Amino acid sequence: MVSIHVRRSSATYWTFQWSECYPKYKQVKKMGKELQVAALKNGTAIDHIPTEELFKVVTLLQLQKLGNRITIGNNLKSNKMGVKGIIKVSDKFFREDEINRIALIAPNVNLNIIRDYEVIEKKKVTLPDEIIEIVRCNNPKCITNNEPMKTRFEVVDKERVVLQCHYCELKITKEEIELK
Amino acid sequence: MKTKSLVSISDYSKEDILRILKAAATFKARPNRDLLKGRVCATLFFEPSTRTRLSFETAVNRLRGRIVGFSDASTSSSTKGESLKDTIMMVGNYADLIIMRHHLEGSARYASEVSPVPIINAGDGSNQHPTQTMLDLFTIYETQGRMENLTVTIVGDLKYGRAVHSLIQGLSHFNPSFNFVAPDELKIPDKYKTFCDKLKIPYREFTEFSPEAVNSADILYMTRVQRERFTDLMEYEKVKNIYVLHNEMLNGSKENLKVLHPLPRVKEISQDVDDNPKAYYFQQAENGVYTRQAIICDLLDIPME
């Protein structure tokens, strides 16, 4: 197998299969565009992830359980953010409810849906009205921490990310969110 | 089909509250009826309580219902490690209604989701105790003859007192004005002030138990200042005698003023207030029976006329 290593920054190398991406690579190079998104043939690229949240996003999306080819880049240069993280997952198109979980910890990420090397859709993540099972209630006396049951939170403030436990009614802010 | 339950005072709309208050008045006039004949009510008190349990059991007994249950978790199957869900599912197959008190917050909401019969929350930790709020509202309605435009002064532990928080929520439908009287350590949490602000409910905050707070009130709602709530015991020593109501403090109060207290009272109302006709806390506790009769019949869709 022939591979190409592209050095993106001092921190990260990306690896692609030569045969797969070479034609597009030539085309992209000619156009002077970034390689990082176009190099994915089909799948989802999650861009503009705050670097400190990158691995939480991996956990939230349960990427460790996927057999798909996944490229993770962190501490990449970003005009908007200074540094950022990117995750690219081949041949995976997330359901809305799966992907919207990310909004809990990284509300400003961009999603690029890619088919045949082209970005065919750009999406923003949005917090759902209700979050089931992903977040732990911070109240040790809450029933959800004492019974084998799912947690359930209403999103009471989407902008500032404030959740309220459906059971004990405790409100938790973005900084206090603990994933299950 | 989802059954009706009463878990939180916010489950009741203004119309629901008024309907229950009117029904409670009919039970006060005639508390002994056959409305629950042939029905079984379960009282599951995972946490001990005297007043609430006896009041519920009196309510059911006076309506000729039967009661099963326990008054202490040590005599229940939860000590064997049974989950709350399993206990509720089992009892829900025996009884027509479950009245439960539990030390864990949110337990009543969860029980209402898994139970095949209605649940009445008789207190879930420091979260909700909606029947206390309903009996407070009924007592206000009974003594004032109206619910709208009343000035309510609340004194004592406004930070942790769940009765206080639910009372604010319950009264919010009726255009009230509040005076909040509390030491700095126990003042009303910001979220309740924001709640009042949003609904344009006027309130004033006092750190002194001043004559103004008493004399402007239609209802004076006293609560206990508990020693264990203070991080600084010096602070407790400073304030423990300040938030005590003495009889002479009522001299300049309104004619229609009534003094309420969710009980148990310790020292925050001195004994000399008991003989003042404005003292109404024992009648308030009695009203718990009638209010609970109304709530039970309402949840079971039993006609009350």
Task: Describe the model.
The longest helix of chain A is centred in the N-terminal third of the chain and has 14 residues, at 18-31. Chain A has helices at 18-31, 54-60, 96-99, and strands at residues 3-7, 13-17, 43-49, 70-78, 82-90, 110-115, 118-124, 130-132, 135-136, 152-157, 162-165, 171-173, 178-179. Chain A has a five-stranded antiparallel sheet, covered by helices on one side. Chain A has a four-stranded antiparallel sheet with strand order 8-10-11-12, with no helix packed on it. In chain A, strands 1-2 form a two-stranded antiparallel ribbon. Chain A is elongated and about 50 Å long. Chain A has two domains: 3-124, Alpha-Beta Plaits; 130-179, Roll (SH3 type barrels), CATH 2.30.30. Chain A is mainly β. Chain A has three helices and 13 strands; from the N terminus they run ββαβαββαββββββββ. By secondary structure, chain B is of the alpha/beta class. Chain B folds into two domains: 31-128, Rossmann fold (3-Layer(aba) Sandwich); 131-285, Aspartate/ornithine carbamoyltransferase (Rossmann fold, 3-Layer(aba) Sandwich), CATH 3.40.50.1370. Chain B contains ten helices and nine strands. Chain B has helices at residues 14-29, 51-62, 84-94, 107-114, 130-144, 162-171, 190-198, 211-215, 233-239, 281-299; strands at residues 40-45, 66-70, 97-102, 119-124, 151-155, 177-181, 203-206, 219-222, 258-260. A five-stranded parallel sheet of chain B has the order 7-6-5-8-9. In chain B, strands 2-1-3-4 form a four-stranded parallel sheet, sandwiched between helices. In chain B, strand 6, helix 7 (190-198) and strand 7 form a beta-alpha-beta unit. In chain B, helix 1 (14-29) crosses helix 10 (281-299). The model of chain B has no long low-confidence stretch (mean pLDDT 94). The interface between A and B is medium-sized, with 17 and 18 residues. Chain B: Heterododecamer (2C3:3R2) of six catalytic PyrB chains organized as two trimers (C3), and six regulatory PyrI chains organized as three dimers (R2). Chain B: Keywords: Pyrimidine biosynthesis, Transferase.
